Amino acid sequence: MSSRSPRPRALTEVSAADWVVELVGEFGSRVRGLLPSGFESYVRVLHPAWPTSAGAPDDREPLPWEAVAAITGARMHACVQFDALVGADRGEARDFEPAVGELPPTLVSALCEVLGKHTATPERCWFCLWDGYGWIAGSSSAAVLITTGAAPGRAVDTPPAFPAEIMSGPRVSLPGRDYILFEGPLAAAKELGWRRGELLSDAYPELDFDPADFEPQSPNLFWPHDHSWCVATEIDLDSTYVGGPQGLVDALVDDPRFEAWPAQLDDRVDAGGDEINT
After folding, report:
1. Which one of 6, 26, 166, 218 is most buried, counting C-beta atoms within 10 A?
2. Model's pTM, two decimal places?
3. Is 145 in contact with 153 (CB distance < 8 Å)?
4. What is the mean pLDDT of residues 50-54?
5. Averaged over 31-54, what is the pLDDT?
């Protein structure tokens, strides 16, 4: 029996997201432009930073921003921005790079573990995935170069990631972003992403693709059916934001697996928002 979590189900009916659409502010309007207003508290989870010159990606170890700040002499604070932290906004070398637009899988699992303790409906959650990822549309926007098997060196186009009724279906439309909506248990947050192996095995059965080849993508927005919290990982940001009860915020701030800071709806989220390290 597989130990993988259930996959989220893509939907052609998106009214479950109406409350988010109603309560999220204008695009670029600080934290309130990412998450619905009305939660008791908000928190910012920083994405780990990777050395940019430390060998192959699989060999690199991520660093918390606090460790980067110790190297650069910058100061950590709730509205810290990475460009200011490493001096990139002043033209200094950028020796570290945080994960942008995506929370690493290990932190998605850890976050879901905490979130599950702060909702009465963990078995029914909703997930939004930005529809602009190239792999979703498929074709030459996500061409794959075969490096092994029957045709090394051949580039093949990829089919769309989802059935036609999803590809042409309605979207959750927020200012500046459109999303495909999914439903599933909270654990399904780890199962969103490009199932390249399955798609290519079906499209090119004569080639030696591994059906298990999977590139996870953390949800861009997700929440439980009881609306007790909401999580946002905006595609252009290096932090994930969460709105919910104070107990959830306290749990994330206190959890050593996260580098988390309390946030406010009016906190800036842009690269120029760090007024201390600039």
Report:
1. 218
2. 0.91
3. yes
4. 74
5. 92
Residue 145's pLDDT band (cuts 50, 70, 90): low
Contacts of 56 (CB under 8 A, 6+ apart): none
| Backbone φ/ψ region at 149: left (φ over 0), alpha (ψ -120 to 50), beta | left
φ, ψ at 119 (rounded to 5°): -150, 150
Joined tokens for residue 118:
């702060």
Q: In terms of residues, how long is the chain?
A: 278
d(CA 48, CA 65): 7
| Pairwise CA distance, residues 30 & 264, whole Å | 9
Tokens representing 220 are: 């861009």
70, 94, 176, 230, 277 from 24: Cα distances, Å = 35, 33, 12, 11, 29
Per-residue model confidence as pLDDT tens digits over 178-229 = 999 999 999 999 999 999 888 888 888 877 788 888 899 999 999 999 999 9
Torsion, Cα 113 236 234 60, to 10 degrees, reads -10
Q: Which residues contact 232 (CB under 8 A, 6 or more apart)?
A: 34, 35, 220, 221, 240, 241, 242
- pLDDT band with cut points at 50, 70 and 90 for residue 62: confident
Cα(182)–Cα(12) distance, rounded to whole angstroms?
Answer: 9
| CA separation for the pair 225, 153 (Å, rounded) | 47
Assess contact for 206 and 102: CB atoms under 8 A: no
The three-state (H, E, C) secondary structure of 69-86, written as one string:
HHHHCCCCCCCCCHHHHH
Report which of 176, 138, 171, 173 is spatially closest to residue 157, judged by C-alpha positions. 138
Three-state DSSP class for residue 32 = helix
